[in-house]
Amino acid sequence: MRFLPFFLFLLLCSCKHQADEYALKGLDISHYQKRIDWAQFEEKAVDFVFIKATEADNYQDSLFADNWAALKEKGIRVGAYHFFRPQRSALEQARFFLKTVPLAKGDLPPVLDVEELDGVDEINLRFGVALWLGEVEKACHCKPIIYSSMKFYERYLHPEFSDYPLWIARYNHKAPTTKGWLFWQYSNKGRHPGISARVDLNVFSATEAELDALLLP
């Protein structure tokens, strides 16, 4: 019995969530979170929020405009992401995203969410990703952020896009092992005041000054 406290100590240490080590916290939202009660939303608990804006070359998230306006009013750092469909024209997708999102000074860089092959091969996936990134980078004068799961990124996108800011999804108590990540989506089962549904939770790996340095000039 005298060994039990030490065993419990080791167990607790092994289960500690590494996301707790990062000071800057964020959410990402879409219509899946339904209509948010902005009067109850606790803005002081988050440092940044990413919002789904578009998908493919013809779909705008039904709550994007409302979510964008509400977060802007609250003064939270906000960014928008596009869900990439590799079978569709990458340039048309980029132009649709740029037409939909009113990017402005102080916004987080645009995000390209790349999660699926959609039946294309690796070469065509990377070609399309490069086209989207180039078109958006030219328009916003900044490098867009790439979002992907750790396994998908390392299998299909690394090292070709390693010079782009990286947002990695890994639902694990341990941080991603991929080098150079800036954002880590560590859970899709979070809770936040004002949001009735589960919500994705994120951290930023660096300082507040470095987060602000990413904002559009």
Describe this structure in words.
By secondary structure, the protein is an alpha/beta fold. It has one domain (about 25-215): TIM Barrel (Alpha-Beta Barrel). It is built from 6 helices and 9 strands. An 8-stranded mixed beta barrel has the order 1-2-4-5-6-7-8-9, surrounded by 4 helices. The longest helix is centred in the middle third of the chain and has 19 residues, at about 120-140. The relative contact order is 0.18. The model is unreliable at about 5-15 (pLDDT under 50).
Features:
217 residues, eight-stranded mixed beta barrel, 6 helices, 25% strand, globular
Low-confidence stretches: 6-13
Strand composition percent: 25-35%
Say how many strands there are.
9
Q: Class, according to the CATH hierarchy?
A: Alpha Beta
Overall CATH architecture? Alpha-Beta Barrel
The portion of residues assigned to helices is 25-40%
State the end-to-end CA separation: 61 Å
Give the secondary structure arrangement, pairings included.
Elements: H1 4-15, E1 24-29, E2 48-55, E3 59-60, H2 64-74, E4 77-83, H3 90-100, E5 111-113, H4 122-140, E6 145-149, H5 150-157, E7 166-169, E8 183-192, E9 195-204, H6 208-214
Parallel strand pairs: 1-2, 2-4, 4-5, 5-6, 6-7, 7-8
Antiparallel strand pairs: 1-9, 2-3, 8-9
Helix pairs in contact: 3-4
